[in-house]
Design goal:
With 97 residues, the protein is α+β, with helices and mostly antiparallel strands. The chain has one domain: Alpha-Beta Plaits. The protein has three helices and six strands, in the order αβαβαββββ. A hairpin with a 2-residue loop joins β4 and β5. The longest helix is centred in the middle third of the chain and has 12 residues. The protein starts with a helix and ends in a 12-residue tail after the last strand. One of its GO terms (molecular function) is structural constituent of ribosome. InterPro entries: Nucleotide-bd_a/b_plait_sf, Ribosomal_uL23-like, Ribosomal_uL23/eL15/eS24_sf. One of its GO terms (cellular component) is ribonucleoprotein complex.
């Protein structure tokens, strides 16, 4: 398996919305490397989870400004990917969540 694939996919995003989308529309959500494009994300998901990817949508999320005492700081910017997989296929990693 390609080591680059594991650098592209940072972590799965498990929220109430992502769980609903997974169950109803076969969509998986990941936090990905900010430099990754849709083609690289598609190849990484197909290699790691052995599924057929139909579509990839990406979103750049700006970090929120937070206050720490009297100072303001900013959380890191990140990139999210919404991956649609072929109907009938499942990813064992997300089952039971």
């Amino acid at each position: 398996m390609n080591e680059k694939s594991y650098r592209i996919l940072k972590r799965p995003l498990v929220t109430e919305k992502s769980t609903t989308e997974k169950d109803e529309h076969n969509k998986l959500f990941f936090e990905v490397d900010r430099r990754a494009n849709k083609i690289e994300i598609k190849e990484a998901v197909e290699q790691i989870f052995k599924v057929d990817v139909l579509d990839v949508a990406t979103m750049n999320v700006r970090g929120k400004k937070k206050r720490v005492g009297r100072y303001f700081t900013k959380r890191a910017d990140r990139k999210k990917a919404m991956v649609t997989i072929k109907p009938g296929q499942r990813v064992e990693f997300f089952e039971g969540v």
